[in-house]
Amino acid sequence: MGCCASSFSKDSVPQNIPHLDNHKNNILNLPSSSNGADYTAAAADFPPFLEFSLADLKAATNNFSPDHIVSESGEKAPNVVYKGRLHNQNRRSIAVKRFTKLAWPDPKQFADEALGVGKLRHKRLANLIGYCCDGDERLLVAEYMPNDTLAKHLFHWENQTIEWAMRLRVALNIAEALDYCHREGHPLYHDLNAYRVLFDENGDPRLSCFGLMKNSRDGKSYSTNLAYTPPEYLRNGRVTPESVIFSFGTVLLDLLSGKHIPPGHALDMIRGKNILILMDSHLEGNFLTDEATVVLDLASHCLQYEPRERPKTKDLVITLSPLQNKPDVPSNVMLGIPKQEEAPPTLQHPLSPMGDACSRMDLTAIHQILLMAHYRDDEGTNELSFQEWTQQMRDMLEARKRGDLAFRDKDFKTAMECYSQFIEVGTMVSPTVYARRSLCHLMCDQPDAALRDAMQAQCVYPEWSTAFYMQAVALSKLNMDKDAADMLNEASALEEKRRGKGSSS
Question: Polar residues compositional bias: what residue ranges (predicted)?
């Protein structure tokens, strides 16, 4: 059942949103950009937009554990963002924004807004990859950015401040994100500030997609101090495309000064030509005054009181592009952070003896468990007619029998040859034979072949935990530790599911 079924009628649900269960073949059609160069990756490289079930997101966030909270904001429309990890999408890390029902009482309106934002896909965005409406729950799901916010790196840094070239890169990247959104029909961005700028696994700055969607149906979208909000918002409470430009000007001030300075105070400094007083002292003069002057002038134009006097998004990009002076230096190097490799996920379920043996890479124990299991998990994988009991069939079963004897006696090379004879005939499929041959390959130091056999076992029996466990061992042998940990988790989850079915029957 889709996660919206309990919340609104079939007629009110936005149609054609892929559900998580069939996500592999449901990449959302991306909008055609007016500038094809915006896309550095093929459409298929972007994550699809999905409708998640509440159970998916509870599992991903450990039932919305306080330990998973990464931010909380909004007094008028409170929301909390959690870090999570999807259990059945290759353990992808996600950010889950959880609203109160009060903010979005109408689930259709929430789903429509989410779907609109979900059509956007760009390398400068932390893209929205899904949503969930279930009862009182209203949730957005986005790509997770592991390297903190611009606010953290600018205002609360511990090791080093952001160097000037990186600040220029941040300004351009966010300008490009805003320009893309404007051209694709989403010119409004709510409460743009240094907390909305995130750094991905490569240290590249990206604009959070959450700001593309209102915090509530009534659009009360500015949660920051009123001293930083656009003057027209104070007059009428509405966000316009020009309001976004004003907010971008406040971000430029942050980048220049390393402090969160109210625009009115900063403009007084600009008018007094006190550019050096405004500049971040932690830069220790390591910037070009000409470049800083260009950024300061741009900020001044963005902060004009009259909205019509502010620049367009394309003007932001045109002004900032020529200032990029270290295009070949990776962002993580400029930020002074290691390129992040995600740590292997912790196990979510207790390990069975098979799981424990695989996690310890104990091939002898795995051999003993496969021997004891015999062929009980092959039941139902073959339905043979009377006509198929030919001499060829008898020969094939004899080859398997010889393989089993050799496997028992730890003559793995002979076992491998006999199992190959059985497999090559092709009349009968056996996940157990693939698993046994996989172990034979491991015993003969052939992890690539072992992985292929374990994957074949999974193809024959998609929910067989042993197939996943054998893949985990092969992946470990190939030094693919994170993938191996993912497979262990997948296998233990399948075992848990199977035990649950057994106890309920």
Answer: 1-15
Q: Are residues 170 and 308 both part of a single domain?
A: yes
271 burial level (CB within 10 Å; 0-12, 13-18, 19+): exposed
| Range 251-262 average pLDDT | 90
CA distances from 393 to 31, 258, 314, 388 (A): 55, 76, 71, 7
Model confidence at 425: pLDDT above 80: no
Q: Are 99 and 131 within one domain?
A: yes
Residue 157 has pLDDT above 90, yes or no: no
Please report how the helices 289-302 and 263-271 are oriented relative to each other, as an axis angle in degrees rounded to 10.
130
The structural domain count of the chain equals 3
Q: Is 423 left (phi over 0), alpha (psi -120 to 50) or beta?
A: alpha
- Let me know if residue 461 belongs to a domain: yes
56, 134, 191, 200: the active-site residue: 191
Output the six-digit token pair for 388: 């198929």
Q: How far apart are CA 344 and CA 155, in angstroms?
A: 31
- Percent pLDDT > 70 in the chain is 79
* Residue 52: domain span: 10-143
- For 308-345, b where at least 16 C-beta lie within 10 A, e where not — what string? eebbebebbbebbeebeeeeeeebbebbebeeeeeeee
Q: Convert the pLDDT of each residue in 75-134 to its tens digit.
A: 554 678 999 988 665 568 899 999 887 888 899 999 999 999 999 999 999 999 999 999
Question: pTM of the predicted model, to two decimals?
Answer: 0.63
Residue 258 belongs to domain with CATH number? 1.10.510.10
Concerning whether 67 is annotated as a catalytic residue, the answer is no
- 91 and 154 fall within a common domain: no
Among 335, 365, 389, the domain-final residue is: 335
* Residue, of 350 and 49, whose pLDDT is higher: 49
Average per-residue pLDDT for the chain: 81
Bridge partner list, 197:
207
Residue-wise pLDDT tens digits, 446-500: 999 999 999 888 888 888 899 999 999 998 888 888 888 888 888 888 888 777 6
Structure tokens at 225: 């101090």
Same domain, 239 and 264: yes
Strands 125-126 vs 205-208: parallel, antiparallel or unpaired: parallel
- 155 in the same domain as 134: no
Tokens of 267: 């403009």
Domain assignment of residue 384, yes or no: yes
Same domain, 37 and 137: yes
pLDDT reading at 338 higher than 60: yes
| Domain-located, residue 342 | no
Identify whether residues 366 and 301 lie together within a single domain: no
CATH code, domain carrying 90 = 3.30.200.20
Same domain assignment for residues 62 and 90: yes
